[in-house]
Sequence to fold (138 residues):
Amino acid sequence: MNSYRKELWFEVPTRRAFINITPDVDECLKESGIKEGLVLVNAMHITASVFINDDESGLHHDYDLWLEKLAPHEPVNQYRHNVGEDNADAHMKRQLMGREVVVAITDGRLDFGTWEQIFYGEFDGRRRKRVLVKIMGE
Ligand code: ZN
Fold:
């Protein structure tokens, strides 16, 4: 069995954003040479997510409003975590959108369902952050 590891780096200029990282993961898969196996993709920060869904801008707008309803950024003093920081909402948004995804690799391709794409969800941006790509198989 072979294994491959790579870190993808992001510096989002806004507090929140959704980025389609499917081409980056695809590039990792090609680099790994693995044809059958699994790829794990996870955010390496507790205020960011990796998730799978549709690459549709209306949906991403809806996610943002939904997350803001469930865990509004303001007022920042509503959260006990926000002593000396202001990102409690980002921790909660990450919890809702998840930490990682696992995708099957078949015939050297990401074996997605219909419309599935991999996204990086940033909830406390404006600094450098990492995503881990770990591929195992043969
Ligand atoms: Zn925090």
